[in-house]
């Protein structure tokens, strides 16, 4: 059995869409403590994503293959966390408006608690200079769903309209770099060749 150490709806949807049988569990990692400690030591947002992905996979404490994943948003070298409210989401989107940011998506796999593989993909997203009228309509339509995404958008939905240019792996933007993961699962005999 494959275990996904994440309760992320987007990550579950990516694996389900790819036909990967799995069980989702909560990882139980104190992400804020890890981020604070790493940033105090000068770690980059990308490094934070990698560390959290591996820690989540290990912390799940399940036998067999466990997938951990994490995604960070970087704007001008600064790491951003998920918004806690729609007001904070509005501020985040206003800050991102008309600017370019990066999403760093890391995935790690452990077998019986031992790390065996990891991969990180970075996507660069250029947010268009949308109007406040569009922003109001967007926030009303998406609601609290936005709080589940570090960028306060879901590219697989109305959030696609926020952008004028995107460079990178679509699945990485959704929070789970998939192609290499599928290769690994086939190599491990968890998926058919």
Question: What can you tell me about this protein's structure?
Answer:
This protein is an alpha/beta fold and 193 residues long. It has one domain (2-187): Maf protein (Alpha-Beta Complex). The chain has seven helices and seven strands. It has helices at 9-17, 31-40, 45-59, 86-96, 132-142, 170-173, 179-187, and strands at residues 2-4, 22-24, 65-75, 78-80, 100-111, 114-127, 163-167. Strands 1, 2, 3, 4, 5, 6 and 7 form a seven-stranded mixed β-sheet that branches. Helix 2 packs antiparallel against helix 3. It starts with a strand and ends in a 6-residue tail after the last helix. The mean pLDDT is 95.
- Major sheet description: 7 strands, mixed
The first-level CATH class name: Alpha Beta
Number of separate structural domains: 1
Tell me what the CATH architecture is: Alpha-Beta Complex
Please give the number of β-strands: 7
Distance between the termini: 17 Å
Q: What structural class should be given to the helix and strand makeup?
A: alpha/beta
Oligomer: single chain
Q: Report the C-alpha radius of gyration, rounded.
A: 17 Å
As a percent range, the share of helical residues equals 25-40%
Shape: globular
